[in-house]
Fold this protein.
Amino acid sequence: MSTEISAQSQAASYTEQARPRRPFGRVVKNYVALTKPRVMELLLVVTVPAMILAERGLPDLWLVLATLIGGAMSAGSAGAFNCYIDREADRLMKRTKNRPLVTGEISDRNALVFAWVLGVISIVWLYATTNWLAAVLGAAAIFTYVVVYTMWLKGRSEQNIIWGGIAGCFPVLIGWAAVTGSLGWPAWVFFLIIFLWTPAHYWPLSMRYREDYAAAGVPMLGVVRGRATVGLQVILYTWATVASSLLLIPAPGIGWLYTAVALLSGGYFILQAHRLYGSAIRGQEGKPMQVFHGSITYLSVLSLAIAIDPLLPF
């Protein structure tokens, strides 16, 4: 019996030695990929402008850095949970075939542990370096993205991205709360802008990757509805986004720069949405990815204007 155990131990040891060790940089790169860094970047883009508007000037740089670190960890935790929960669906989609859990670069168990640890650290970090409200909002963002969107709505409703997209609005509230310890009405308007922007941003992507989502059984609007219906919805949410952006004009610290940018960039965003719809009603595919990338540019430019306006001397 002892001889058999010894042989098994030696075999396991040999297998472990024979297995190629991945370079440390490659391991780090794969864990970073779990956090969905592109989504994280977009979320952090709106955090700093919210903090500047709340302060009506430049906040303490350490507070900004601490908030960004906490927000990045919170978003990264949500992304890692999403990759873990969606790992089977990701194996069926071309768009996600290179994610670490699909390729086997990271084990399911390690990904889940990583998501939990990063999430807990993010909440503790925000509480220790900012305040309790920012920490609670960070926890709420993770819960909304993981439970409400990924586990509940994503596989069940064509409206999934509308309500699940609320998670992407939390960085604005976290940034505002970190500065003021409360939530003023401009923060909620900024929240509303991102809430309405999310479907107009994401549904063109669902049009482009319709076959992918269908193969994975995800009822995105682009899967269950025709192009014309999706295009019309994109138009409606684009108009609503631009209209809501004008509600921020009376906010203290907002001036002519933001007003001009909101009107000009909003007009361009609306034009792109109408072009997509025009192609759809003619039975053409159009350029949904142009609208997708254009929506990112729109939100980035709008956020930049929010950040700059309170710093202007006039």
